[in-house]
Amino acid sequence: MKCCPTIPVEVSPQNEMQLTMWIETFKNIGSKKITDAGAIQITITKIAPNKAILMSVYPNKEVADKAINAISENLKQVKEIVKVEISEGEVVFNQNSLSHE
Fold this sequence. Notes:
With 101 residues, this protein is an alpha+beta fold. The chain has one domain: Alpha-Beta Plaits, CATH 3.30.70. Helices cover 42% and strands 29% of the residues. It has 2 helices and 5 strands, in the order βαββαββ. The protein has helices at residues 16-36, 61-81, and strands at 5-12, 41-48, 51-57, 83-86, 89-90. A hairpin with a 2-residue loop joins strand 2 (41-48) and strand 3 (51-57).
């Protein structure tokens, strides 16, 4: 069963301080833009001292495509500062204390 489109973004700055600055900027500015564009869930997971994965989940493919278009200019600016790799996928399993009984 298909669920929700996701856009995993791997962010790899040169050092841990740049990653911390990117995360704080995203929390204060980027998350609002992605939420306004239609994201229903946003998660950042730090996987190394200078690497993180941002996962944004959308209700459908059309909303996900609109979100990428809405943030494309911001994405260009981020790519000038840090290495960014964007993928596409879909949620195939999700469980947390709010959805699991």
